[in-house]
Amino acid sequence: LAKKIGLSNSTHSVNIYIDLDKILNEFKEEGIVNQKNRPISFNKICQLEDYKIINQMASKAREIMTFYQCVDNLWEVKNLVNYILRFSLAATLARKYKTSVKKIFARYGKNFSVKVKDKEKIIEITNFPSKNQVDTLKCKFNIETIAYKDLIRNR
Fold this sequence. Notes:
Blueprint: H1 20-30, H2 50-67, H3 74-97, H4 101-108, E1 114-118, E2 121-126, H5 131-135, H6 148-153
Antiparallel strand pairs: 1-2
Helix pairs in contact: 2-3, 3-4
């Protein structure tokens, strides 16, 4: 059958690359980077509580890491999260408190860990993905196994 459709015994690979310019343009439209692709304050969320700002940026980071985990230039995805989103988050909090990014990192740490309390009980711990979590991200496809009978049933 392989000879019939023109396949050989050699191995072929498919490379998948992220279109970094497309993502950076989306970040520009959202207000996460400036025209030179440098991280800036995400002004749309400055008025939110700190843990909500951190949650929103952490959610965006995790979404990007999950969606683009299968690309061959994964290092560029890691750079987007480790540099652009992390520093945009710091710039957002710095703008909110009218202080420097350096002081924000000193206050929250590089992982932006925040404990939300409700009457002396911790109800939520929020943090941005750590540099180690991002750096150890491996290139792979996220595939869920679906039973054939479930596939047919959901038609």
